[in-house]
Amino acid sequence: MLEVKQVSKVYDGRRGVHQLDFTMERGEIVGFLGPNGAGKTTTMRMITGYLQPTAGSIVVDGQSVHDQGRAVRSKIGYLPETPPLYPDMTVQSYLKFVANLRDVPAREIKLRISEMVSRLGLQEREKQLVRGLSKGYKQRLGLAGAIIHKPDLLVLDEPTSGLDPNQIMEIRDLIRELGENHTVLLSTHILPEVSTLCNRMLIINQGQLVLDGSPQHFGSSMGDQFKVSIEVKATEQQLHNLLTPWEKVRREVIQSSDGNVGTDQQGTVKMVLTGDSPEDFREELFYLLSGAGLPILEMKKENLSLEQIFLKLTTTELDNESPDKGTPDPVREDSADSPTKEESK
Questions:
Q1: This model's pTM is above 0.85
Q2: Which of 42, 146, 307, 315 could form a disulfide with 77 if both were Cys (CB 3.0 to 4.6 A apart)?
Q3: What is the CATH number of domain 224-301?
Q4: Taking the domain 2-75+151-220, which CATH number applies?
């Protein structure tokens, strides 16, 4: 559905994004993550045709964004972080305006508006001025405008930003529903949204793609050390005597259910065992404990959280390339999203 091929964007000799390369299939919901200034908004603006890449190509459903821009834009719905709403319009007039801009057939406009009002929970707001809407309803209206022409690809930039918990849950449910019939690229700073909504994630740092894959897979594959939490029917001293000679792991006792460190009232101990390498030691641990007659009540592999993955990939700086070698510096996203003099003419 979407192919981003070796895409770069440079402003006045400064690099915004560098050789991005990824694809999205129909029906995918993909989380697009990165710290502020990483190039997320620049990338989304290039995908949606608002900016032209300096190098590389972007193809949507087999058509080039650069060469067939109008046809491609009809296949894309875009919701910026701040929806482009007109405060003096009513909800209904705004949706009619957008439907006309998006070349929705005249005979279908009334039906589409009714569908959007119902689907986005805008009932009884049709005659209300946009300026009088709450933040949550403005987000809903912006999303209605992004999907009123039934696009194949939906690009959402921080769609739940500034919403209250109830509104966030409603928008997430809607995105999940939209993912059944649309391809969705979702930029967010709320990492649990990625785990909840997305079957794949992209992480960008300093303009370069540093990760592409499922959140679940990378949680288990990126750890430098293998980690397991266990609950064993034993005393802390028994486990200490058994595990101390086993040099391949270090252990950390967890508070028991009664709040004390060590053996709880049920005669069990909870521990986290961390290996000195990524090697899986669970089978060896099982035979070690069972051979000593210590029943394992629970054994769980501990994966890196999405927050840990994000920090691991975005706090390690990319190769420091000095400008005197002819390599452009990374730029902040706010400047990267500003057009060059030539683009503004």
A1: no
A2: 146
A3: 3.30.70.260
A4: 3.40.50.300
